[in-house]
Amino acid sequence: MENFIKIKMNKRKKIALVAHDHQKKELIEWIEFNKGNLSEHELYATGTTGKLIEEKIGLKVNRLKSGPLGGDQQIGAKISENEIDVLIFFWDPLEPQPHDPDVKALLRIAVVWNIPIACNRSSADFIFSSHLMKEDYNRIVPEFDNYLKREI
Q: pTM score, two decimals?
């Protein structure tokens, strides 16, 4: 039987904002609409997306590398270290991406660590309309000790 642990997400969430090129306009529009709510949280973004958020919206963002240059992997690492609570990733399902393995790895690690993920405007709206965004929350993840102790 697997054991579980609770990881506290504070009222002030750490939110990663990512968008593929053909989705950046959509994400920027969503951020503009939610500027007030987003300003209450700590924001992270991959390179170009972060630059657009700062220039067009005026929100402070912790900018990482561009997605194809390792930014997706940086966000994944932050998720696994409990430094990201929510992932808003407007990805483009109709365009091939040169860094597609990184994208899949990022989405996979977000599921492994049980963080909320929004992949489009509707799912982002539902996450942000939840009362849980404005209060502390304990997410539950498996205690991975058994996985780490397994025989190979």
A: 0.91
